[in-house]
Structure formats: structure tokens, C-alpha cells
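User: I've been trying to design a sequence by hand for this structure and keep getting stuck. Would you show me what you'd pick, starting by listing the structure so we're on the same page?

Assistant: Good idea, let's start from the same input. This is the structure you sent:
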């Protein structure tokens, strides 16, 4: 089994990178790369995810550890089953459960089609990807429009640089440096640092300062997967609002939601 230093050399050459080029992408010195590859020293543990991401591999693979397969459990089917349950509830509201399969097929085959049920105590929303049971009244919901912190977050998400950095953090699933982010997102190190700092304000990322041969390096990583899920739903609903040609397949309303 190949050692870490041997794998670093092999992967670097596979990506046609010099030690200097790899050092720039990691935000460390070329001397550090040389020491790692010659087995003189090892990368700080906080930097391993960054190295794995830059070299397009996993931390296990860096150490020559084979990936074991895990058994899938029934939990994998829970989101789809729950989504179906919400669709059934909406369909039952209209006393049309016998046409449920047609109703479900219509939503699944038409991205712009949705189904909504509004009541004085909440609402149900369903489309191809989302099934939401909302349990606040219209009077409570409208207060969200005046929430300053929500507006600040929406403003942050509208930044092209921040969106690119956040997407990279999510895709790599490991730690990064501002230098590695800048390379991946085709932005400056300063822009990457600013976006990482803004993202961290919302507890979506954290950072740790480590010492590499006397030089301080900040290592960032994504955190709080449940907060990422919030963002996915925000983007999904924003996409729906942005569409001018959406179609409501079923609708049952309460006038307090509309006026």
C-alpha cells in the first residue's frame, strides 16, 4: 500500500502540477510540499481535506485506504414517501383521491406546476421537488417581509462571488483555503476571503488558523448541513417566484393569504 508522501507525488504528477503550482493552490510554500513528498514532515490534519479536494481525491485515498461500501437502509426512501404523503393530503382536500396517480404524474412531469391549499391556520404546498406543510397563519407569515436579517441574507446570496464560493464549499465537502477557493472559483484571493468571511457570519462555515513552516494559514470548512438545507429551500422557492409561467394544478384558498 502506497504511503501518504508517495500518493502526494503520484497525484500531483497525475494532475500535471509542479510543487510550486500545488503550493499556490493550497496557499502554502513549495518548501512544505517538498517536505511532505519526501516524508520529512506531514501536512497538518486540518489541511488534508484541502489537499484531497485540490488533487481530486478523498482523504482515505491520500493514505491509500480503500473505500468500503455501506449498506443502504430504508431511511433513503423517507423523503420520497413523505413527499407522496403530502401530495395525497392535498389531493384528498379536493375529494379526488381516486385520481391521485394522474395528479402526481402531472406534478412530476411539469416543473412549473404546483399545488396549494390555504387555510386560516396554515398551508400546504407541493411541486415536483417540494412538499411543505406550513403551520403559521397569514398574519404571522406576513411579518417575515419586515425581517431585516432575512433581507441581509438574501442580499448576500445575490452576490455572484459568494454563490460560487458557497457552491464550491458544498461540492468539495472538505476544508479549503482562500487560495484554493480563488483557484477553483476563478476569483482573487481577496474576493475569496471576503466571501468566506460573510458565509461564516451565518454559521455556514468555520475556520481554523494553522501554522505551516512559520506561516499562518486559515483553513475553512462547511458546517451545519441543516442550514444548507434551509438555503436549498430558499433557492427552490426563489426559482418558483421568478417563474412567470407557473401553473397551479389544484388550489383551495383562504382570502387572508391573498389580501
Amino acid at each position: 500500500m502506497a504511503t501518504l508522501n508517495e500518493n502526494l507525488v503520484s497525484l500531483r504528477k497525475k494532475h500535471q502540477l509542479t510543487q510550486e503550482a500545488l503550493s499556490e493552490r493550497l496557499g502554502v510554500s513549495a518548501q512544505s510540499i517538498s517536505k511532505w513528498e519526501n516524508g520529512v514532515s506531514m501536512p497538518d490534519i486540518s489541511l488534508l481535506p484541502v489537499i484531497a479536494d485540490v488533487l481530486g481525491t478523498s482523504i482515505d485515498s491520500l493514505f491509500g485506504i480503500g473505500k468500503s461500501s455501506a449498506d443502504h437502509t430504508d431511511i433513503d426512501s423517507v423523503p420520497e414517501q413523505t413527499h407522496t404523503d403530502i401530495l395525497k393530503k392535498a389531493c384528498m382536500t379536493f375529494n379526488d383521491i381516486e385520481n391521485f396517480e394522474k395528479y402526481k404524474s402531472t406534478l412530476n412531469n411539469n416543473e412549473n406546476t404546483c399545488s396549494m391549499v390555504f387555510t386560516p391556520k396554515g398551508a400546504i404546498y407541493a411541486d415536483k421537488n417540494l412538499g411543505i406543510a406550513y403551520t403559521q397563519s397569514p398574519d404571522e407569515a406576513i411579518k417575515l417581509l419586515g425581517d431585516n436579517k432575512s433581507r441581509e441574507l438574501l442580499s448576500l446570496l445575490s452576490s455572484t462571488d459568494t454563490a460560487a464560493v458557497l457552491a464550491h464549499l458544498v461540492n468539495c465537502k472538505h476544508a479549503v483555503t482562500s487560495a484554493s477557493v480563488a483557484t477553483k472559483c476563478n476569483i482573487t484571493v481577496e474576493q475569496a476571503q471576503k466571501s468566506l468571511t460573510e458565509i461564516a457570519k451565518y454559521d455556514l462555515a468555520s475556520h481554523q488558523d494553522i501554522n505551516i513552516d512559520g506561516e499562518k494559514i486559515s483553513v475553512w470548512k462547511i458546517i451545519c448541513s441543516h442550514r444548507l438545507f434551509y438555503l436549498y429551500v430558499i433557492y427552490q422557492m426563489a426559482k418558483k417566484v421568478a417563474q412567470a409561467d407557473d401553473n397551479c394544478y389544484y388550489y383551495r384558498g383562504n382570502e387572508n393569504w391573498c389580501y
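That's my pick for every position. To get oriented when you compare it with your attempt: Confidence is low (pLDDT under 50) at residues 67-73. Residues 225-242 form the longest helix (18 residues).
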